[in-house]
Amino acid sequence: MEPILDCQNLSKKYGNFFALSNLTLSLEKGQIVGLLGPNGSGKTTLIKLINGLLTPTSGHVLINQMDPCTQTKKIVSYLPEREYLNTRMRVKEIISYFDDFYDNFDMHRAYKMLEKLQINPSARLRTLSKGTKEKVQLILVMSRDADLYVLDEPIGGVDPAARDYILNTIITNYNENATILISTHLISDIENILDRAVFIQNGNLVLNESVDDVRMKYGKSVDALFREVFQC
Amino acid sequence: MAWALNNDRPIYLQLMERIQTDIVSGKYKPGEKLPSVRELALDAAVNPNTMQKALSELERIGLVYSQRTSGRFITEDDTMLKELKTSLAHEHIIEFLKKMKQLGFQESEMLELIEHTLKEGK
Q: How much is the pLDDT for B2?
């Protein structure tokens, strides 16, 4: 089967600094992958390369065998690490905006999630709390039927109860052929829903293994291994 | 409510054990249909692929069987269910003995204590 994401010798240099160096990583369809690494390890750089927001210094990144372009943006659903929506808009306006913009947006699913998380569709975005804004962004991203979901720190500002619901919606909504790449520091919260953990450090890939293989090999959780590998 | 899983052992093994316990305790009856992979994964709050792996393993050892389009069912093989019950009990006993040894008890003392506790009715 063709990988959904294929990075070959991917490097990104800012001045003299390698944010990513020679990273080779290929992800199969149908799995949930944790992109894990300490601050400044290159996670967001990799994610921006996948989404065509940065161009590689060398090497290449392919999504479903295509360079990042308009075509790949149709099949990649991306949650950036920052707010990017017009905060004067109402939630329901943003939803119809997304519905207009993306063929694969499922408005019904979005409203169902809003209701479950008790978010008022008529509220203007700027009146919502930080955590609620994050929930809205995640709902928008997860309401698309994409092949690859790229979530940059999706649950950081969200309370634990809503976190459970969000992880639940990730398990329920993703179809068996979709791949989800999640970058996060909250490893123990998401470990049970991951197929695979990818560790990066100083722009290098240091581990790419299934969660159960990690537990079998090292006799500890991915969270515990992370703390050991990246000990300060 | 997510299933209680610990951190140091493979998740699929723990899912298998949990389902085995549910079978022995009668939550799922012999011949009964198991919920779908996705339902079980949601209930346990784990990755559906991991749940799939746990069920495939249970199928491999013969505890559940799948019927082409209609799902997975619990075996009706009584001997097998009895064996499962005994082997789960065995594991608990081994675990118990290990802990008692850590506390410094000899085997005879352990037996005495167990009998004593049983007599007192827990």
A: 78
The domain total for chain B is: 2
Q: Which two tokens stand for residue B35?
A: 């919920």
Bridge partners (DSSP) listed for residue B73? B33, B65
Kindly list the distances between the CA atom of residue A28 and the CA atoms of A44, A176, A219, in Å, as whole numbers in the listed order: 20, 11, 25
Question: Does the CB of B4 have a partner CB in chain A at under 8 Å?
Answer: no
Give residue B69's domain range: 11-76
CB atoms near residue A227 (< 10 Å): 14
Residues 14-73 of B with CB under 8 A from A: 38, 41-42, 44-50, 53
ipTM: 0.82
pTM, to two decimals:
0.87
Residues B91 and B58 in one domain: no
Round to whole Å and give the CA distance between A199 and A213.
Answer: 14
Contact criterion met (CB < 8 Å) for A212 and B11: yes
